Amino acid sequence: MPLTPEQQAEIDDARANPRPTLRAVAEGMERHLYVAHPVLDHGLIRVIDYMGDDSAIVQAARVSYGRGTKAVSNDEGLIRYLMRHWHSTPFEMCEVKFHVKLPVFVARQWIRHRTANVNEYSARYSILDREFYIPAPEHLAAQSKVNNQGRGEVLAGAEAQRVLDLLREDSMRSYDHYEGMLSQDGQQGLARELARMNLPANIYTQWYWKTDLHNLFHFLRLRADAHAQYEIRAYAELMCRITADWVPLAYAAFEDYRLGGTALSARGVEALKRRLAGETVTQETSGMSKGEWREFEGVWG
Q1: Structure letter (DSSP) for residue 115
Q2: Which terminus of the chain has a smaller tally of CB atoms within 10 A, N or C?
Q3: Angle value at C-alpha 186, between 184 and 190, nearest 5 degrees
Q4: What distance in Å separates the CA atoms of residue 67 and residue 61, rounded to the nearest whole number?
Q5: Is residue 287 classed as helix, strand or coil in its secondary structure?
Q6: Is 218 flagged in the annotation as binding?
């Protein structure tokens, strides 16, 4: 169950008692409020609250830039200018708070983005549910032979089944032992804060995660990238769609300049210029390492 009965009751109550507001609202984001979007097998994302919209970015930029922005004739042009030149502070005027349910190993990767406010479900006070992330067969893959932190060929047949069986059995066994260690059924048992250490990293946790748009874009640029781990990318791609509904002009600029764009080193710029001039450039003559050259060719052929 993605939402607990208590969480669903909270949503139903909020929907039943709408309140008028004088603040600016984004119609696209209003449609996401109180909606739990499923992710992976037991996960979810829902928008708890937000502040600002495209106009808030423009308003902040015109306050700080003053007369210098008069040459920009429209909001879209100004937002694209800000994104193109890495002017980040106007994007910080928008904020969003998500409720996220996710596997612990994804949470530990996610929390590396430290520019957010986070409040996580506490297994010191509450007992975690028996819910584990078990990958779909198409997401079971061997270690990559060229990338130490990535996946290679997809597992198939008996090998895939063997791994799935181990994941399910280990998850259930560890939870059985977790329950058995807790103080219940008349036994003294172990404190929750200690018993939780026996749980695997694929068990689900939940948190509220609040951040501004600038730092959200930074998160999405890394985690919605095709090279990101699938499990966190599934969350990031959904957040991209939500953000596009919230701030369509800003997201379009972000998609163009950050998600769809690429950065070149000084050596990369020089190699590209030499190629355009008709010169044959190789990895050995480019001054780049093998890894840099592989990435350069991945974009420029």
Answers
A1: S
A2: C
A3: 45
A4: 11
A5: coil
A6: yes
What burial letters (b/e) apply to 78-100, b meaning 16+ CB within 10 Å?
A: bbbbbbeeebeebbbbbbbbbbb
Euclidean distance between CA atoms 291 and 227, whole angstroms: 15
Q: Domain locations in the chain?
A: 5-133+202-259, 135-200, 266-300
Q: Determine if residue 158 is labeled as part of a ligand binding site.
A: no
pLDDT digits (tens, 9 = 90+) for 203-257: 999 999 999 999 999 999 999 998 899 999 999 999 999 999 999 999 999 999 9
Strand order in the sheet with 37-39: 37-39, 43-51, 95-103, 204-212, 117-120
* pLDDT higher than threshold 60 for residue 260: yes
CA 56 distance to own-chain centroid = 23
Q: What are the E-state strand segments in the chain?
A: 37-39, 43-51, 95-103, 117-120, 141-143, 151-154, 204-212
151 labelled ligand-binding: no
> How many C-beta atoms lie closer than 10 Å to residue 195's C-beta?
20
Fold of 5-133+202-259: Gyrase A; domain 2 (3.30.1360)
Q: Is 188 exposed, middle or buried (0-12, 13-18, 19+ CB in 10 A)?
A: exposed
Q: Which residues are catalytic?
A: 223
Instruction: Report CA Rg, the chain.
Output: 24
Contacts of 78 (CB under 8 A, 6+ apart): 58, 61, 62, 69, 72
Count Cα atoms within 13 angstroms, Cβ side, for 17: 6
CA distance 210 to 4: 21
Q: How confident is the model at residue 5 (pLDDT cuts 50, 70, 90)?
A: confident
In the structure encoding, which two tokens stand for residue 280, read together?
């044959």
